[in-house]
């Protein structure tokens, strides 16, 4: 089992200094909006992923008027303790250690202490463009497959180099196809690995999502999830070849796994335009719980579950179905809600103890 025993924050967001110790599998942060409930979840996410869930800019998380931040926590993973520390220095340099040993690459930390976050903005996973769904898929696969994470890092780096080269060619009105070919070979090698991993993973994952959807919604509906990729139709290298002139013209790479998507449907129609609010929320939670279940199957323990303001997102029955599942698993759960009485009542009905921090 994976548990976070304690956390210490210094100059992180609205916290000058805060120390919390966690003694129960279910922990709730309650208090009015703006007191820092979500910030605590984000600090936990930092300890798991080395970055914020909400922003890609570390300096945005420094307390106003301060020059850096520090987050420390102790994880208990199957009885073994791990002290994790993340420091953002005044000069913007980030340092991460585990048991006081610094990482050569931050990516080495990913997957050691997995977590799954559910936050208000996650609705975009259903309603927005493909980028969020690719990120969701990449986050899950990176936590269970270190090779996938490394290939993804390589792919994104080469893609950036290739797009930069195409822009340079437009500026100089020159072409060097031999250099483009070198970049293509690197892109194809990493891209094929990513494509095959995603393609092999999706069928079993899809089944999990559908099972959770039925459990949360309380009924069976014709929900469909499929993997869409340009590489279904042709070899990656051939696609790059046929698109060379277009790539030069548009100054970007038009084919590749960076265009992949998860197609979500309800009764064979696009989910985002057909589903009700309740159906969208049911699918969102189903995707996240399927992520948690997949991590448990691959690693032998559940990830930390971070549920931000979920009581406002589901009706009473759907919420009861969700929490009943969450509480029946050997997972440590962190929940935020402005209403302490509601939190206590819900878990009392479920027959579960909850550790409440009133902020």
Can I get a quick summary?
The chain has 359 residues and is an alpha/beta fold.
The CATH superfamily of the domain at 1-114 and 303-359 appears as P-loop containing nucleotide triphosphate hydrolases
CATH class of the domain at 1-114 and 303-359: Alpha Beta
Helix content: 40-55%
Outline, from the CA principal axes? globular
Head-to-tail CA distance between termini: 28 Å
How are the strands of the biggest sheet laid out side by side? Answer: 2-1-4-5-6-7
Share in β-strands = 15-25%
Q: Give the number of helices.
A: 11
Main beta-sheet strand count, sense and barrel state: 6 strands, antiparallel
- Given helix and strand content, the structural type is alpha/beta
> How many beta strands in the DSSP annotation?
14
Question: Keyphrases for this structure?
Answer:
359 residues, alpha/beta, Rossmann fold, six-stranded antiparallel β-sheet, five-stranded parallel β-sheet, 46% helix, 22% strand
Could you explain how this protein is built, in words?
The protein has a domain at 1-114 and 303-359: P-loop containing nucleotide triphosphate hydrolases (Rossmann fold), CATH 3.40.50.300. It is globular and about 65 Å long. It has helices at 37-49, 124-127, 130-144, 146-172, 177-217, 236-242, 244-250, 271-274, 277-299, 316-327, 340-350; strands at 2-12, 15-21, 26-30, 69-77, 80-88, 94-98, 101-102, 115-118, 223-228, 261-266, 269-270, 304-308, 333-337, 355-358. The protein starts with a strand and ends with a strand. The chain has eleven helices and 14 strands. Helix content is 46%, strand content 22%. The longest helix has 41 residues, at 177-217. A hairpin with a 5-residue loop joins strand 5 (80-88) and strand 6. By secondary structure, it is of the alpha/beta class. It has a six-stranded antiparallel beta sheet, with helices on one face. A five-stranded parallel beta sheet has the order 8-12-13-3-14, with helices on both faces. The chain has a three-stranded antiparallel beta sheet with strand order 9-10-11.
